[in-house]
Amino acid sequence: MQAHAQCATNSMSRSSLLSILLNLKQEAQSLLDTTKNTYDHILHSVIVNDLKKRREAVKEGHYLFRSFIDLNNGTYND
Known about the structure:
Elements: H1 2-71
C-alpha cells in the first residue's frame, strides 16, 4: 500500500514538474519574443533616423552646391 502511495506521489511530482517546466518554457519564449520585438523596433528606429539624417544631408549638399553654382554666375568649374 505504501509503495502504491509513493508511486502516486512520484507520478504527481513528475506531473507537477512537467507542468512547471512547460510554464517556464512558455514564459521564456514570451520573453524571447518580447526581446526580439523590442530589438526589431530599436533597429527600425535607428535605420529610419539614419535615413532621415542622410536625406537631410543630401538636401543640404544639393542646396550648397546650387548656391555655389549661383555664386559662380550659374557655371560649375572644378
